[in-house]
Specification:
Layout lengths: L1 E6 L6 H10 L8 H6 L3 E9 L2 E10 L2 H6 L12 E2 L5 E2 L12 E2 L9 H9 L5 H22 L9 H4 L1 H17 L3 E4 L2 E2 L4 E4 L2 E4 L3 H8 L5 E2 L10 H10 L1 E2 L6 E10 L10 E9 L4
Parallel strand pairs: 1-7, 7-12, 8-11
Antiparallel strand pairs: 1-14, 2-3, 3-6, 4-5, 9-10, 13-14
Length: 285
């Protein structure tokens, strides 16, 4: 059985999942339907985390003018940010956005409803399996946020689900996973980090309420630590809640490839990476 395993000891974000899959051999050309449908680009770069060579992926607006044209103007940043010791607002504080003129898509651009986000996906002309996975992940994100706010799925305005960066992360992850063609995907327990984060509604403990809701809908387990920072993001949790079964430890694999998707925090002595292993499952798969 062709299998893919995520090593969740440093959590996960949407960007880290994209980066880990590309680093493991997925073809970034499958992301083209997203960049054709939305005014975004994927910036793919190399970096190093605690001595480990890794890949970063950032979803950006290619220039400032374009980003401002698409901003909703409310000036309020909504959650799926990583708030570190320096209060950096960036999902897992990713490094590098190309030539210095790109604007990160997170926190900018239009906020859409759950239904509007789904319509954008349906208009992308994706392969049926990729579209189905994307819509299922969106539904998980929407249900989690609706549960947190005590609203019905269709009646709430979802900043997380409808934002361009979330659409790009979710569609991209589904497309890259299908390109690698695993028959089964698993993850070890996902580290949440610790401490507290500032959100638009106040300050909340890590894991955040939406991540807790997503974990209740997932097959895998949560694990606190190993540092006081937010390591598991709603988008990453939703992707893994749909695609991955939980395992206690990495299973036996005859490896074909591996990949490391980097987060932006430097968390020495912990390498801040999401590791992905791809191969043939052995034993009880």
């Amino acid at each position: 059985m062709r299998a893919l395993a995520f090593d969740g000891r440093m959590g996960a974000s949407g960007d880290m999942i994209l980066a880990a899959l590309i680093d493991a051999g997925a073809d970034a050309d499958v992301l083209e339907p997203v960049t054709e449908a939305l005014p975004v680009a994927y910036r793919i770069d190399d970096t190093e985390k605690t001595g480990i060579a890794a890949t970063t992926v950032d979803v950006v607006f290619p220039d400032d003018d374009h980003a401002h044209d698409h901003a909703d103007g409310d000036g309020e940043h909504d959650h799926d940010h990583s708030h570190g010791p320096d209060d950096t607002e960036d999902e897992h504080a990713h490094e590098g956005t190309g030539d210095g003129t790109d604007t990160p898509a997170e926190g900018h651009g239009p906020h859409r409803s759950y239904r509007e986000g789904c319509e954008i996906v349906r208009e992308m002309d994706l392969e049926p399996a990729i579209e189905a996975d994307t819509l299922a992940i969106f539904e998980l994100l929407g249900e989690a946020e609706a549960a947190v706010h005590g609203e019905a799925l269709e009646s709430i305005h979802f900043h997380e689900v409808g934002a361009d960066d979330a659409v790009a992360d979710v569609v991209g992850a589904a497309a890259l996973l299908h390109d690698l063609e695993p028959e089964r995907v698993v993850t070890t327990p996902l580290a949440t980090g610790g401490g507290a984060v500032a959100m638009s509604h106040g300050e909340y403990l890590v894991p955040t309420p939406s991540v807790v809701e997503l974990a209740q809908r997932a097959d895998w387990s949560l694990r606190g630590g190993p540092v006081d920072a937010e390591l598991l993001m709603p988008t990453g949790a939703a992707i893994l809640a749909h695609v991955a079964d939980g395992v206690d430890s990495l299973p036996a694999l005859a490896l074909e490839s591996s990949g490391y998707g980097a987060g932006g925090y430097d968390l020495d002595p912990h390498p801040n990476v999401l590791r992905t292993l791809v191969g043939t499952g052995e034993g009880r798969w």
